[in-house]
Design goal:
This protein is an alpha/beta fold and about 210 residues long. It has one domain (about 5-200): 3-Layer(aba) Sandwich (Rossmann fold), CATH 3.40.50. The protein contains 6 helices and 7 strands, in the order ββαββαβαβααβα. It has helices spanning about 35-45, 85-100, 120-135, 150-165, 165-170, 190-200, and strands at about 5-15, 25-30, 65-70, 70-75, 105-115, 140-145, 175-180. The protein is globular, with a radius of gyration of 16 Å. The N and C termini lie far apart (about 40 Å). The mean pLDDT is about 90. Bound molecules: guanosine-5'-triphosphate and magnesium ion (MG). The site of guanosine-5'-triphosphate (GTP) has 23 residues, from helix 1.
């Protein structure tokens, strides 16, 4: 299993011209505001305040690069779906994220986070469509799993598996669905194993937008 020995914030990117010069493999973290992205990053790195987590949604505005073990990047994408964000900013977000995904090869795996108590939002579904289109392997991570009783969590997992059956099979890009909780650490080992597994895959090819 992957062991994280060092994790440092490297830089925030608001424009793709600012991407780190040193191109290393990337693991992406994607999800709507407040879904628990920063908390998950901190938990899997075993750090308290690597990524700022807060109860105020919409804090993360840039693509944040963290360098892990001096070998690869964890990339925290800006949260979406925050109601108070002006329309112009929303359009900017879309372009930034789509251009980011288009780059192809460095992305090894994406974690698409969804609150385990909720259905995917239209923006979550759009994100998943992009990941499928750009052929990015991804995991659906159901966050805040501690907030559901075990029986409900099991049901929710089954519902997600049914709903995203075609993405999970037949050449779809979804590599699995993993419940996660920062409270009991559920899912941490699984994610570390999956990350390690995906580093061994060959790079993706670049694809043009339609
Ligand atoms: N109970 C519980 N609370 C969680 C969990 N993960 C995150 N939270 C809480 O959810 C809130 C939002 O978490 P963040 O990690 O800041 O969410 P984010 O997705 O980074 O949000 P933005 O950066 O604003 O987009 C915080 O109050 C966290 O403490 C979890 O697994 N269980
Ligand atoms: Mg955050």
């Amino acid at each position: 299993m992957l062991k994280i020995t060092s994790a440092e914030f490297l830089q925030g990117v608001a424009d793709l011209r600012q991407l780190p010069k040193n191109e290393l493999k990337e693991i992406l973290f994607i999800g709507r505001s407040n879904v628990g992205k920063s908390s998950l990053l901190n938990k899997i790195c075993g750090r308290k305040n690597l990524a700022r987590s807060s109860s105020t949604p919409g804090k993360t505005r840039e693509i944040n690069y963290y360098i892990i073990n001096n070998q690869f990047y964890f990339v925290d994408l800006p949260g979406y779906g925050y109601a108070k964000v002006p329309e112009q900013m929303r359009a900017g977000w879309k372009k930034l994220i789509e251009d980011f995904l288009k780059r192809g090869s460095p992305i090894s795996l994406a974690m698409q986070l969804i609150d385990s108590r909720q259905e995917p939002t239209p923006l979550d579904l759009m994100m998943m469509d992009w990941l499928e289109y750009y052929e990015v392997p991804y995991l659906l991570v159901l966050t805040k799993a501690d907030k559901l009783p075990t029986s409900k969590l099991t049901k929710q997992l089954e519902a997600y598996k049914d709903r995203f059956h075609s993405q999970l099979t037949n050449g779809g890009c979804c590599a699995g669905i993993v419940p996660f909780s920062i409270v009991d650490g559920d899912g941490r080992t699984e994610l570390l194993k999956r990350i390690e597994g995906h580093f061994e895959h060959s790079p993706r090819r670049k694809k043009e937008a339609v």
